[in-house]
């Protein structure tokens, strides 16, 4: 089989730079990292200088993602030789044990790190990840709450806690976590979108109105967020179908839903994808879809290169 350098006619410098770019972009494209990194450390390790150690770490983590324990062990052994007492290398050892589902042994490594350094956040997070992997969501939530009492500014931890609460269907607490995230980063459209999804799932007219507002805000922050656009369509449709709202509110929300439907159809046309059948712009279609009581929470994130302006919807 041809090597990466032969397939793409690149030298070791380009391969090194590509790995660096992926690190800087925080890209977890593990299969590509393994393909490039394995050849680089096998054939050109002596040319990499001090960069070789961060590359070993990068390739090892990618190898764990790809179930390449042989490659992960090779990288880990090199790191152990160079940094025998490093907490970072001990954490990598624990991560390999996690990948092998040897959770008790992994916990011993993390406990040893925390005994030397109680403020080591990475080791504490790994222990929480083990609880999650074992399906012990209740314990993971408790540990994560204790962690956040000490490290309240950790956005990654707040987001993980919100996901755990969603898995437990505790949407009120999930919403609180997302509110904390929006306060620290109000311009992140994904936080607004996820908060809107939680409020939509909670149901009730007040939550639906709040959901529509935050889907709208997510679109203002990123007008290519198709998931938020679908959310705006669904929330406005449900509000319009509610018997509790006034004629004006019903009329306004029919307008919002119709606008969102138009934008969805436009986006799918431009991207040459088949139009979804439930996003027609006819008012009767909007009203009919509003009668469907469904949960919007999910994990896939459709995207498109089409931009649109939410200003015309006047929300």
UniProtKB/TrEMBL annotation:
Name this polypeptide is given: ER membrane protein complex subunit 2
Function: Part of the endoplasmic reticulum membrane protein complex (EMC) that enables the energy-independent insertion into endoplasmic reticulum membranes of newly synthesized membrane proteins.
InterPro entries linked to this entry: EMC2-like, TPR-like_helical_dom_sf, TPR_EMC2, TPR_rpt
UniProt keyword list: Endoplasmic reticulum, Membrane, Repeat, TPR repeat
Gene Ontology, cellular component aspect: EMC complex
Residue stretches making up the EMC2 TPR-like domain: 90-199
Top-rank taxon, per record: Eukaryota
Assembly, per entry: Component of the ER membrane protein complex (EMC).
Subcellular location: Endoplasmic reticulum membrane
Main localization category: endoplasmic reticulum
TPR repeat feature ranges: 155-188
Underlying gene: EMC2
Topology with respect to the bilayer: Peripheral membrane protein
Family: Belongs to the EMC2 family.
Annotated signal sequence range: none
